[in-house]
Structure formats: structure tokens, C-alpha cells
Amino acid sequence: MAKLKLIQYDKTNSPQRGVGRSNAPILTIYQGGKVNVGIILAQDMKLSIASKVVLLQEEDESTNWYISHGGENAFNITANGKGYKFIAGATAKLMLDSVGFTEKHATVRVANAITVDGRRLWPILMSSAEQRTYTRRK
User: Fold this and answer.
1) What beta strand segments (E) does 14-118 contain?
2) pTM metric for this prediction
């Protein structure tokens, strides 16, 4: 079994971009399986409609999740208004369950990319999960 050298990001050492701000790299994860990719994260990852992504979970630390570029069997990125989305199915619920989040959806911060075994991974800061409320403008 390969040993990973990882940097842990939490509330004390994460980039100081707040969840819900337009300049924050974020994901919005829905219990039903949809995952919205914030525009800043999409730019950081250089995503386009033809892109494919995967979600990774640490075996020894189930609350640690990552997003990365994927291959043939990866989730397909599609357009979602000004941003992007993909359908992760039951994996999205598994992510929320890993931190005990029971609301319909959560917005989470994503940290700067790290490289592990030559692969770029973006740590998903599940501890930052919060439900956002939206107010429609009249």
C-alpha cells in the first residue's frame, strides 16, 4: 500500500476566501448527486465543458476529500449557467455524510492544489460545509 504525503488544510490554515463570496473557489454539493463547480475553482482547474473530473477520498481519513482531473470513466463536466456542474450520484451524499451534514445541499471551500505522486489534487474542505440561502432579487 502506497504511503501518501499530504498537507492537511483546515479552518486554521486555509486560504482566507470565505464560502459564498464570488472570489472563493467553492463546490456546492447536493444530496441528490449534483455538484456545482464555482467559477473561480473552474478557472483554477482550467475546466471546460469537455473536461472530466474525479472525487477522491482518503481511505484512512474519511472526511478528507479531493477533486482532480479524470480519465475515461470520470464525471463529465457540463454547463450550469455561468459555471459548471457534474453529476456524482451517491458519491455526493457520501461526501456530505462523511462530515454529518444532513441539509439538502452544502457549499464548501476548496483549497489550492497540491501535488501527490505527480497528480494535482484540490483539497475539498468538508469542514467548511454550510448551507447557503439565496434571496431572489426583484
Assistant:
1) 26-30, 34-37, 52-57, 65-69, 75-76, 78-80, 83-87, 105-110, 114-116
2) 0.78
